[in-house]
Design brief:
This protein has three domains: about 240 residues, no CATH class; about 300 residues, Distorted Sandwich (Beta-galactosidase, Chain A, domain 5); about 100 residues, Roll (Pdz3 Domain). It is about 30% helix and about 20% strand. The protein is built from 17 helices and 29 strands. It has a nine-stranded antiparallel β-sheet with strand order 14-15-16-17-27-23-22-19-20. Strands 4, 5, 6, 7, 8, 9 and 10 form a seven-stranded antiparallel β-sheet that branches. Strands 12, 13, 18, 21, 24, 25 and 26 form a seven-stranded antiparallel β-sheet that branches. One of its GO terms (cellular component) is plasma membrane.
């Protein structure tokens, strides 16, 4: 979270406990342009592995692979030696959305750049639904098409269709099955389609399970029209997506870029300049053209292989010779891990000093950035997306997206935030993992199973993938974040090569799952992690019994408040005694108003005589602080509460890890109230926080005694205002936490009524059988004319306490000082 939000959360917690403590007393039981889009983020990596021993022959003219700009002049062996790869832009997928394939991921690639364009999590639960779906939309989902407006007819050209998506399963009236690559979508239902946004708008009012008619033109220039009927599904969580597909969470200034790109970090003595993303003679890594091939293993694994040749023309100006790069991505059923391998082969006639740069993922889901509150080990707090890493020297570290944005604005010529450099110690550059962390999901590079470190690197840096100058105020938390790794330089003989292998985790932040891969520190509860882990475990046990997290939260509240009942009761008794002594304490204050020391002694003597400890009422509140904060973090961090409903999975309060979102008012409320990030309350009217505030005020009115003087009346008014102000603090907290406070408040009302009936006869106070005060602080005599117990004690105190002086301290004569002999 940013510094403003972090301060807001800390102040909220402090304010809440100050408020509760006070209520227990007052209401007892009674500059330069940023780099362009192709330079805004750098990301890279390579393992300084041994030079491969296998011989590699130079490719023939039929085997030319490549990189480079399609528009560059073509090279021929006669004029320029080995040419760079050319070709058309294509899209590919591995994984599936079909439950029968048992894949957890559906990944979309583009051969121009050989990077990841999109990762969708397709894991199914026991009911066959998506275990992790998008929670910010309730409309139906047709599929991702990487669509582009068609140049010849009004419509959107389909460039990719994922296996198992509703589009792939659609059936035409004439019998054809599945929308195909190359089809042009011209209408969905009654809505004509001319752009990608038209597809989204045509489905905005649909629901999962609805059937829609999709009209497509097939066959290029032909007039063949097909009418498909598709059954819409829920939206799977798009863990990685282009910024332009962000929907309501699309933030101006964030850049759309492929993830996990690779390029040459160094050739000979030339390396990528600071602040740039590629060598000066080479194209941007997202522009490199690669050829692609796919393979399916007997175990259900799927692999896509990309290959490119960087030719003579691209490298000779910096003293380099042609190289061939090959990279593969492999996934397996029921796994969130992607195996990534890169190999570089020297196609020249002389040895070359080469190094790789591997860019990390970007476009990680910013889900809930306008309401969620991540915490970090650093005082600077966390954003919706942060760079995290672990080295032997530093341990687990987090670099906030807010910090990265601040640095990019401060030095736009070098927007990167160094993690370690070539002159760092061996321990500082011993990288165990590095990734991008979101609220409930993460993408991280990890070492292969046989290694303890990701690899050997000269440099690692975190960065933003955004134009820092365009990120709007109060939306900084949603800035796009990534990282890059520069490998060590290796001398590669002609015909030889070197490789790099790394694994990428892309999935949910389930504690057990993360621990299996050695990245358990991605789940961070803060200072009260012991209580968070304990309460989270108990919550899961209760849910397994009752089958509903909302009911489990209520039961957890009963257990927690029940265990704390002795403390609450002692606080109530102490508050009762404080109220009883209040009139006598006021008398002492009036009698000694000009003598602070005498007043304090008289009040302390009275409290000692009656056995009253003024701190006893506050101590229980502070003992409850770790429990409250631990429960707050458990409910905010626990992914198991995500998309778990109060009762209806598609209705109100369908996500206990988010505000209840009773009604959308962002289109008619002013931006300072309902803006995403810019508004105090957010784009939804939430009613659970209103219930919380109403119950707080009810408690206050039920148990706060009538004001006896102007000062008390003013204090009670301030308490009411503070209670109303608490509504701002609760308005964007998770619905699950509101349920906790509602249950806790109802418990508190019942508890105070019970405590009033069970207060024991006071040791120093006269109480009747119901615990009500008879005459402990009465201001009038009993019928028999005898003095009350407190009045007798006060007389004893006064006898031992000197009368307050009538002369002001400033005019009193001081005794003369004794002269020194």
């Amino acid at each position: 979270m940013d510094r403003r939000t972090y301060t807001f959360v800390v102040a909220s917690a402090a304010f809440l406990f100050f408020y509760l403590s006070l209520r227990a007393v007052v209401a007892p039981p009674q500059p330069e342009q940023a780099p362009p889009a192709d330079q805004a983020a750098e990301v890279a990596a390579q393992d300084g592995g041994d030079v491969a021993q296998a011989e590699s022959t130079a490719p023939t003219s039929d085997e030319v692979l490549g990189s480079g700009d399609e528009d560059a002049e073509s090279e021929t062996p006669e004029t320029a030696g080995i040419a760079s790869t050319k070709g058309e832009t294509e899209w590919f997928t591995i994984g599936s959305m079909d439950p029968a394939d048992k894949h957890n991921l559906l990944i979309t690639f583009r051969n121009r750049g050989a990077g990841i364009e999109r990762i969708e999590i397709t894991t199914r639960d026991e009911n066959g639904r998506f275990a992790y779906r998008r929670v910010d939309t309730r409309s139906g989902y047709l599929g991702y098409f990487a669509g582009q407006p068609n140049a010849k007819i009004d419509g959107v050209t389909v460039n990719v269709v994922g296996p198992g998506t509703p589009a792939a399963l659609a059936v035409a009236a004439s019998g054809e099955k599945g929308i195909q690559v190359g089809d042009v979508i011209v209408a969905i239902g009654e809505t004509p389609i001319a752009s990608v946004s038209d597809i989204q708008e045509s489905l905005a009012t649909s629901k999962p399970g609805n059937a829609v008619t999709v009209e497509v033109v097939r066959g290029g220039d032909s007039t063949k029209t097909l009418l498909f009927e598709a059954k819409l599904s829920e939206h799977p969580l798009d863990l990685i997506r282009l910024a332009t597909y962000g929907g309501d969470d699309e933030i101006k200034g964030n850049l759309s870029r492929l993830s996990c790109l690779v390029t040459l970090a160094q050739v000979g003595r030339k390396s990528i300049p600071i602040g740039e993303r590629s060598l000066q003679s080479m194209a941007d890594p997202e522009s490199l053209m690669w050829t692609a091939s796919q393979q399916t293993g007997d175990d259900g694994s799927e692999t896509i292989r990309f290959e490119t040749t960087i030719g003579s023309q691209a490298l000779e100006s910096i003293g380099g010779e042609p190289v061939r790069m090959t990279r593969t991505f492999t996934i397996r059923p029921r796994s969130y891990v992607v195996d990534m391998d890169v190999e570089v082969v020297n196609l020249g006639e002389n040895p070359q000093n080469l190094a790789l740069r591997l860019e990390g993922p970007n476009g990680i889901t910013p889900e809930g950035w306008w309401y969620s509150n991540k915490i970090s080990p650093n005082f600077s707090g966390a954003a919706a997306r942060d760079a995290v890493y672990r080295t032997t020297a530093d341990g687990h570290g987090l670099i906030s997206g807010m910090t990265l944005l601040k640095e990019a604005r401060k030095t736009p010529e070098d927007p990167n935030y160094p993690i370690f450099a070539s002159d760092s110690s061996e321990a500082a550059s011993d990288l165990k993992y590095i990734g991008v962390d979101a609220q409930y999901f993460a993408v991280a590079f990890m070492p292969p199973p046989e290694k303890s470190s990701v690899g050997s690197y000269d440099r690692a840096s975190a960065t933003i993938v955004a134009d820092a100058s365009d990120i709007e105020k109060h939306k900084e938390r949603a800035v796009n974040v990534s990282f890059f790794l520069n490998g060590k330089t290796i001398e590669v003989p002609p015909g030889k090569g070197f490789g790099q292998s790394v694994q990428m985790f892309a999935g949910p932040k389930e504690p057990d799952l993360l621990d299996q891969h050695g990245i358990g520190d991605f789940v961070y509860y803060g200072w009260f992690s012991f209580f968070s882990s304990l309460l989270s475990g108990l919550l899961h046990i209760l849910q397994s019994i009752v089958g509903n997290y909302a009911v489990a939260i209520v039961l957890l509240t009963v257990i927690v408040r029940g265990c704390m009942f002795p403390l609450s009761r002692n606080a109530a008794v102490n508050a009762q005694r404080m109220q009883e002594l209040a009139p006598e304490m006021k008398k002492i204050a009036e009698k000694y108003k000009d003598d602070m020391e005498g007043r304090l002694k008289a009040q302390q003597a009275l409290q000692k005589r009656v056995g009253f400890n003024p701190l006893a009422g506050c101590l229980p509140m502070f003992l409850q602080l770790p429990i409250f904060m631990g429960l707050y973090r458990a409910l905010s961090v626990d992914i198991d509460l995500r998309q778990k409903p109060l009762w209806s999975p598609n209705g109100w309060a369908s996500n206990l890890a988010a505000p209840d979102q009773f009604m959308y008012w962002g289109d008619w409320m002013p931006d300072f109230i309902a803006g995403r990030g810019t508004g105090w309350l957010g784009p939804y009217l939430n009613i659970l926080p209103i219930f919380v505030v109403v119950l707080f005020i009810t408690q206050q009115k039920l148990f706060m005694p009538p004001a006896t003087d102007e000062q008390t009346a003013m204090t009670q008014k301030v308490m009411t205002i503070m209670t109303l102000f608490m509504g701002l603090f609760f308005f964007r907290v998770p619905a699950g936490l509101c349920i906790y406070f509602i249950a806790s408040s109802l418990w508190g009302i019942g508890e105070r009524l019970l405590v009033k009936k069970t207060l024991p006869k006071g040791k120093h106070f006269d109480l009747d059988g119901d615990g009500d005060v008879i005459d402990a602080v009465a201001t009038k005599r009993n019928g028999d004319g005898k003095k009350t117990l407190t009045e007798k004690l006060l007389e004893q105190v006064n006898q031992k306490t000197p009368e307050p002086p009538t002369t002001p301290p400033s005019k009193r004569k001081r005794p003369p000082k004794k002269k020194k002999r």
